[in-house]
Design brief:
3-stranded antiparallel β-sheet; alpha+beta; 6-stranded antiparallel β-sheet
Length: 235
């Protein structure tokens, strides 16, 4: 078995101790063994076992990125864990940008468009987006639709490219993710996902929607073939 660890930040890492798990029959417990310097500055060794405290576990969890500080969750948040953040947005109008080199760049770029209700998922610095047919908070069994935008693949994962993303991984970063997504340029279809059932396809749909004050016509959304529960659980 080969194991690899990547640690960013360029910090010098030193051994401070080890958590050892002891098992006997059906019982198990864990203790902390602090690292002791070896004779003459040589190889360190583990000292005597010490009891684990709640404060120690909290500090360890924070260092490993598994501790979540208490937050007041807005109504839009659907799921919040140490590794995952999922939320939804209601139908609205947005200014969309298309790359100048794309077929849509000249006549569609920078105009206002109706946008369907959406579900955003962020994990590990990656972004996924799906659409909703109903303009209401989804449940675990809600069937999702393909987000009708370029830059996303069949799984709904967005090609971030030069998109500006927030530094925060908490709920205070929601607006930053949405802003980064909609202020970036939609440049290309990514994969074989069918983005819309509108006659004439994706470009014809957005030419039809440009400047339209009515809601997005959700009848032209395509089936993503998964529920919200499956979308959340999929890695």
């Amino acid at each position: 078995m080969e194991a690899n660890v990547t640690i960013g930040g360029g910090h010098k890492m030193t051994l401070t101790g080890a958590v050892l798990v002891y098992r006997g029959g059906n019982d198990a417990f864990a203790v902390w063994h602090p690292a002791k310097p070896g004779p003459g500055g040589g190889t360190p060794y583990l000292g005597e076992a010490e009891s684990l405290t709640t404060e120690f576990l909290r500090t360890l969890s924070a260092g490993l990125g598994t501790y979540i500080a208490p937050e007041i969750l807005p109504a839009s948040v659907l799921v919040r864990t140490s590794e995952l953040l999922v939320w939804w947005t209601a139908a609205q109008h947005r200014t969309l940008f298309f790359g100048e080199q794309s077929e849509a760049g000249k006549d569609l770029n920078g105009k206002r468009y109706p946008v369907p209700p959406l579900v955003f998922k962020v994990s590990g610095g990656c972004l996924w987006v799906r659409a909703l047919e109903g303009n209401e908070r989804p449940t675990a069994r809600t069937k999702l639709k393909t987000a009708p935008f370029w830059n996303g693949n069949e799984a709904g994962e967005i090609c971030i490219g030069t998109m500006r993303i927030p530094e925060s991984s908490g709920v205070d970063g929601l607006e930053g993710w949405e802003r980064g997504f909609f202020q970036s340029e939609f440049t290309h279809a990514n994969g074989a996902a069918r983005l819309t059932s509108f006659p004439g396809g994706f470009l014809a749909l957005y030419r039809h929607l440009a400047g339209n004050r009515r809601p997005f016509p959700v009848e032209y959304l395509t089936d993503a073939r998964e529920t919200l529960q499956q979308f959340v659980e999929r890695r």
